[in-house]
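Quick illustration, no need to memorize.
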Amino acid sequence: MHIKCVNLPICLHVIKIMKNSAASLRQQGDHMIDGHSGKSTAFIKANLPSLTIWLAVFLLPFFLFACDSRKKESYTPVYATAPAGKQAVLVFGVLPFHNPQHLYEIYNPLVEYLNRNLPGITITFEASRSYEEFEKKLDSRHFAFALPNPYQTINSLQHGYHVFAKMGEDDKFRGLIIVRKDSGIKTVDDLKGKIVSFPAPTALAATMMPLYYLHTHGLDVNQDIKRLFSGSQESSLMNVYLGKSAAGATWAPPWQTFVERNPQIAAELEVKWETPPLLNNGLVARDDVPPQVVDKVKALLVTLHTHEEGRQLLAAFPLARFESATNATYQSVRDFMKKYSEVVH
């Protein structure tokens, strides 16, 4: 058995005390032996060494505990936010276009690419389970970099973020309204009194733009339909397939992914209406991320379409390219939100 002495001077003092105690016990034992006779005297004399050892064993833990306690009382732990000489990890958050696992499969390779090409910088990908969870993280400045939808992009500016790039292909940023092929729905008026499913209240292309489209085509979206917020793009579509909603809204890339991953289910659905396009999703950086780091990340992203590795990463989204952008780029989204908020409640 090995006993670790946490404080050598104290433990040496303890050993000295135990040695003196053993000697004192032996002297007392001799006195006891001198005052007794017979079997009792013989028993005490024969077992005196064992008694001494047992006393030492019994007292040792208490002395060691005292030594260790004295050390602990004087110890104050020190915590650091990052190892010396290393940068803190920068969290990259992406709006939950898909479920967390699928989102990770698509976007984590992009983050790994950034890390390979950014010496001394560590970025980690983080998925969120819902729009609400993602927005709470964005509002609390949890993300260093984020890919929110255009509505969330302009809101993020109030929390210390700024736009440095965006997804290209604005023509793909349009809302789609999906119905079953056997639904019998022909016109917007056929949705009166029925349930329409959406991913989330703050989904711009998949909720706000479809609602505004229905409004501009004669439907009172505040009275004529019941909105069902299902939590994700896939759930909005599955509600239509299962007959839980008469129609469901999404937008182009998730619909394309859904068709590829669920061809038999998608074969029973059809795109009934499309909204006009708006600006695509933005890329934002928190204001405490060094400008030179933001510039390096931007340069890597907006040049992905110029080489084979980058084009393979973009194909997974799917997307043709990222492009440069600023806060001013999203003025048209502000204009849309003003019109939307006036008519949809």
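Residues 175-274 form a domain with the D-Maltodextrin-Binding Protein; domain 2 fold (CATH 3.40.190.10).
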